[in-house]
Amino acid sequence: MEEKFLFYIKLAGKYEATGNTRHYSNGALLPAPAELRIMQYSDDSGFYLLYFDETGKEQTDTFHDTLQQAFHQAEFEFGVKEHDWIKQASIVWKSNV
Questions:
Q1: HEC string of 5-68?
Q2: Please, what is the end-to-end C-alpha distance for the chain in angstroms?
Q3: What is the distance of C-alpha 54 from the center of its chain?
């Protein structure tokens, strides 16, 4: 299985959590992410909205059937508009093995 990163957005200093959702890991509330990315696996038609901390470590993700749904989720959670996203300069499938 290979992955393709499509879009990213740095949240720090520009966007804040709306409070519409909360993400937990092992029962603990996760801190607000510093960056969001949207990616897709080569064998999957859906899209993943990935949440990264300030060190670049993935915190969590959400699955969406369409790219529009992933954009909408980011707007719902952080106020990120679709036109704010930065398209990856070169889209390369990377092996996830």
A1: EEEEEECCCCCCCCCCCCCEECCEECCCCCEEEEEEECCCCCEEEEEECCCCCEEEEEEECCHH
A2: 7
A3: 14
Left if phi > 0, otherwise alpha if psi is -120 to 50, otherwise beta: which for 75?
Answer: alpha
Tens digit of pLDDT for each residue in 64-79?
999 999 999 999 999 9
What's the whole-model pTM score?
Answer: 0.88
| Token pair in block for residue 83 | 């036109």
Going from the C-alpha of 14 to that of each of 34, 39, 87, the distances in angstroms are 10, 22, 18
